[in-house]
Amino acid sequence: MTSVKKRAPRTKNKEDIARTIELMTEQYGPFSKEPRLPPIDEMVFTILSQHTSDINSSRAYRRLMDRFVTLEEVASGEIEEIEKAIAPGGLAKIKAPRIKEVLNRVLELNGSLDLSFLREMPLNDAKAWLRRLPGIGPKSAGIVLSFSLGMPAMAIDTHIYRVSQRLGLIGPKVSVDKAHDILEEKVEPEEVFNFHISYINHGRQVCRAQRPLCPECVVGGLCPSRKKFMSKADLAVLAAQEENTLAGSSGAPMPHVPQSESP
Ligand code: SF4
């Protein structure tokens, strides 16, 4: 018996991805590139923000800087003192030694905590440099390079990962780490910032983990997962819209316009 090989699902091309970014930016943007923290501060901030809210990590960062004033002081500080300062961010027992270790490793490798030299490096070299640091994975490296240094690096969080999978930008079996490289290839460098912010917004507001709001989705027409999540009633509305579109009718609402609840 001849075995039939299953074809891998098709993932989106660059043009379709650019269109999703455009549509989401129209919906949630425009986004302003506010100046962020210096790269080494951004790195400490990413450690503080692991498994906690933005509010808690901001509070922990402020308390750390109030207590030590400079990150050089943190690097030579007592772990117990760092721990006390960052307590509002949670997991202080794990984060305090990690922050101290990473700062000291940067000092060892670079002679200072100034990481602005990374901006002059090719993107892959800059990523590799950061990835040598303890506990710095692709997401943390991406945050530092993208948000602090304005480089076109990916920083895939849970929202971006989920939306990218549902939209078919990456295959269902692609790991988060691998997704960084794939999406960096597929998103134009000048669009990486809009990609980050619009996909995060979309994941938080519409393409939520549980019960995504597909009938309201601005990129629904480009999404292979849409029908999987829609109720029978919403599917019927969608089918009618598609029929109208095929018939050349201009009266049907776009699929992403919120539908009234069924009686
Ligand atoms: S159609 Fe649904 S699953 Fe697809 S991106 Fe929109 S909200 Fe997410």
Describe this structure in words.
Helix 2 crosses helix 8 (138-148). By secondary structure, the chain is an all-alpha fold. It has helices spanning 14-28, 39-48, 54-68, 71-76, 79-86, 92-110, 123-131, 138-148, 158-167, 176-186, 192-205, 226-229, 232-246. Among the domains are: 14-33 and 154-205, Orthogonal Bundle (Endonuclease Iii, domain 2), CATH 1.10.1670; 39-148, Endonuclease III, domain 1 (Orthogonal Bundle). Helices cover 56% and strands 0% of the residues. The chain contains 13 helices and no strands. The structure holds iron/sulfur cluster (SF4). Iron/sulfur cluster binds at residues 163, 166-167, 206-207, 212-214, 217, 219-220, 223, 225-226, 229. Iron/sulfur cluster is lined by residues 163, 166-167, 206-207, 212-214, 217, 219-220, 223, 225-226, 229.
